[in-house]
Amino acid sequence: MSNSHLFLKPGFIKVPLQNGVGRYVGQLQRVVLKFCKSSGSSRGMREFIEADLVDFAKNNPGIVVYLKPRRHRTAIIKAEYLNGDIQWLNCRNFTKDEITKWIDLLKTQQKNSTGMRIRKLWHTDNPSIQGPWTPFTFKDPKLNLAKFPDEELSTPDHLNRTSQDELVELFKQQKLEELEKCENVERINATN
């Protein structure tokens, strides 16, 4: 482990859990577009504001857009996220298309606390190489390609059995194995 983590502020990840269960909540809260009205390096930002800003605001009602004209300064996009993180993007000499792509990227990404040493409430010396468990980890892969309703999958053989049925079946198998062991012991004793 390097000592680079000593210079980073410690903190915990503050993201909404289960984002997308029920509905997706966009993480971008506010966009501030800073630009100069006369500078040549802000031309792409001014073109974006004139041509595409109204459409962007209509298509994304959950994102607040502020315009901040500044004299003799380079164009900047400031993105603020729901977890309190702020990201700055210098847009010097960017074209209108580049600014559109960057704003779309800022809108779709979920900003984690980069520049922060992430602390966990647990530690292990042997981390898992299998990855996190999901509800689909041990499911049959043919369910991915099935068109529902499917006659083959709706037969009783493929329905989930209860735990009680599983235990009864295990008990029967154990009894059969015990009987076979007893019969084998009797045969060995009879031959001696």
Automatic annotation (TrEMBL):
- GO annotation, biological process: mitochondrial translation
Q: Could you tell me one molecular function GO term of this UniProt entry?
A: structural constituent of ribosome
Task: Please give the superkingdom of this protein's source.
Answer: Eukaryota
One Pfam family, short name: L51_S25_CI-B8
Q: Report the principal subcellular site.
A: mitochondrion
Query: What's an example GO cellular component term for this entry?
Result: mitochondrial large ribosomal subunit
Q: Keywords, A to Z?
A: Mitochondrion, Ribonucleoprotein, Ribosomal protein
Extract the InterPro entries matched here: Ribosomal_mL43, Ribosomal_mL43/mS25/NADH_DH, Thioredoxin-like_sf
Kindly give the Gene3D superfamilies that the UniProt entry links to this protein.
Glutaredoxin
Q: Give its localization.
A: Mitochondrion
Give every Ribosomal protein/NADH dehydrogenase domain span: 37-110
Q: Which family does it belong to?
A: Belongs to the mitochondrion-specific ribosomal protein mL43 family.
Q: What is the designated name of this protein? A: Large ribosomal subunit protein mL43
Instruction: Give the species.
Output: Phaedon cochleariae
